[in-house]
Each structure stands twice: as C-alpha cells, then as structure tokens.
Amino acid sequence: MSPNAEPRLGPTVPAAVRRWKLWLLTVCAIYPTIVLLGLATNPVLENLDLPVRLAVLVPVAAAAMVWQINPRLQRHFGAWLTR
Predict the structure, then answer these.
(1) What whole-number distance in Å separates Cα of residue 33 and Cα of residue 6?
(2) What letters, b where the CB count within 10 A reaches 16 and e where it falls short, cover 39-52?
(3) What is the pLDDT of residues 2-37, one digit of tens each?
(4) Longest Cα pair distance anywhere in the chain, in angstroms?
(5) CA 60: distance to chain centroid?
(6) CB atoms < 10 A from the CB of 81, how many?
(7) Cystine design at 82: which of 15, 23, 42, 77 (Cβ 3.0–4.6 Å)?
(8) What pTM was computed for the model?
(9) Residue 61 burial (10 A CB sphere; 0-12, 13-18, 19+)
(10) Do 14 and 75 touch, CB atoms closer than 8 A?
C-alpha cells in the first residue's frame, strides 16, 4: 500500500451476480415452496376462493424466500452465481 493510499474500511463489494442464474435459482426454489405450502395449508384453506388462498400463501412464500431460502441458496451457490 502506498503511503498516500487510504486503507479500505468496510465490507468489500461482492462480485456481480449473473441475473439469469439468480432467476433460475429462485424459480427452482419458489416452485417447491409454493407447492409444499399449498399442500400444508389446503385442509385449512380449501373452502376459500383461489385469490384469498393466494393472498395467504404468497406473503408466507415470499418471507420464506427472502429470509430463509434465498440466503442459504446464495451461500451454497455463490461461486456459481458470479461465474
């Protein structure tokens, strides 16, 4: 490091993620998530109209994807996502 260079403070910038790979990973994760949530909640929600069932399922699936599934998949497939 040169004497006039400022030291790097803070996190490093991650490599750019290939958007098509992130899309593919998300599709592969969201489909089983929605199917399993649909099967698990069907006994309780079966008498509701489809739009109402989806109004319950979509926020739960989105929360699972944002806070649980995607972070784990991105850690596991991180190198592949940036290649």
Answers:
(1) 46
(2) eeeeeebeeeeeee
(3) 566 666 666 665 679 899 999 999 999 999 999 999
(4) 71
(5) 12
(6) 19
(7) 15
(8) 0.74
(9) buried
(10) no
Reported as half-sphere exposure (CB side, CA atoms, 13 A), residue 64 has a value of 15
DSSP 17: P
Question: Each residue of 56-68: pLDDT tens digit?
Answer: 999 999 999 999 9
Rounded alpha-carbon distances, angstroms, from residue 82 to 10, 18, 29: 21, 6, 18
How many of the other CB atoms lie within 10 Å of CB of 38?
14
Helix-helix angle 19-45:50-64, to 10 degrees: 130
What's the residue count for the chain? 83
